[in-house]
Write a structure and sequence with these properties.
This protein has 301 residues and is α+β, with helices and mostly antiparallel strands. It contains 8 helices and 19 strands. The structure holds manganese (II) ion (MN).
Length: 301
């Protein structure tokens, strides 16, 4: 099941996405007398198993509601959760080859992390899947990309054991953790260089946990102006999704709708020889098979 948030005729809708069309879930739910609140992605996530069951019934009966389908060309996709309640959680240095390239670029020997390295991106960084990414040359000369698998938390919880972690996952989406490398270094804490407005495109949809099955089989890739830069399998993560959820939730309550970006593989611009920074006009395409792609234009401001 692919779930989207989209604008249609000035209204923000939650939809079930199919090739070339979208089912307006709130409209279909009213026609089917579903009790669950399907009016926003956060409402659906908070609705738990009841909301998921309603979605499955509407998916089955979709053709009973012809007036609730909207042609895909008539909608503009937003991030699946366009206004998260709190910051996007992120994991740094979670793919071996990316850890190695980072140290190599600094001429240092690689040290592997022994625990996940967490940081966050500010809520206003969240951007739509086809949104422009701001590049202010007065502020940064080293804007870089990072394609990542993002996990959407369903059922919240604290001290979640790794063997129960997937029970707390609602679904998955594609993220790009755009990073101003010079700000990341200058401010020492990563937050500033990772939190500029528009620097966290998400989408194009959330695919529910059951449809993905084992996320280790997913492949991520990224191109800049069509040139391949990143390609890896989720199975190559140093800390897998259960380990990340167990570690992050230790003494820290995760809530429905929390977003966790799980780290980027090798191939980022700063580690290339010579290092490459994004320029105005560049098109960055981030893909995860079975989820979809982000297409983001870099726009100088
Ligand atoms: Mn990252």
């Amino acid at each position: 099941m692919k779930l989207v948030t989209a604008i249609h005729e000035g209204r923000t809708l939650t939809g079930l996405w199919q090739p070339a069309r979208m089912l307006d879930l709130a409209a279909a739910g009213r026609r089917a007398n579903e009790a669950a609140d399907l009016s926003s992605m956060l409402a659906i996530v908070r609705g738990g198993s009841g909301a998921l069951a309603a979605l499955r019934r509407l998916q089955e009966r979709g053709d009973d509601f012809p007036e609730a389908w909207i042609d895909a060309s008539q909608v503009q996709l937003l991030a699946p959760i366009p206004n998260p309640v709190r910051n996007v959680f992120c994991v740094g240095r979670n793919y071996l080859d990316h850890v190695r390239e980072g140290y190599a670029a600094k001429g240092q020997e690689a040290k592997l992390p022994t625990v996940p390295q967490f940081f966050t991106k500010a809520t206003r960084a969240v951007n739509s899947p086809h949104g422009d990414v701001r590049l202010d040359p007065q502020l940064t000369r080293l804007l870089d990309y990072e394609v990542e698998l993002a996990v959407i938390i369903g059922t919240g919880g604290r001290d979640i054991p790794s063997e129960q972690a997937f029970e707390h996952v609602f679904g998955y989406t594609v993220a790009n953790d755009f990073t101003a490398r010079d700000l990341q270094r200058r401010h020492e804490q990563w937050f500033k260089g990772k939190s500029l407005d528009t620097s966290c495109p998400l989408g194009p949809c959330i695919v529910d946990r059951d449809e993905i099955g084992d996320p280790r089989t997913l492949e991520l890739s990224l191109t800049v102006n069509g040139e391949p830069r990143q390609h890896a399998r989720v199975a190559q993560m140093i800390f897998d999704i259960p380990a990340i959820i167990a570690s992050l939730s230790a003494g820290l309550t995760l809530e429905p709708g929390d977003i966790i970006a799980t780290g980027t593989p090798a191939g980022v611009g700063f580690a290339m020889n010579p290092p490459q920074a994004l320029k105005g006009g560049d098109l960055v395409v981030s893909v995860i098979d079975r989820i979809g792609e982000l297409r983001n234009r870099i726009v100088e401001v």
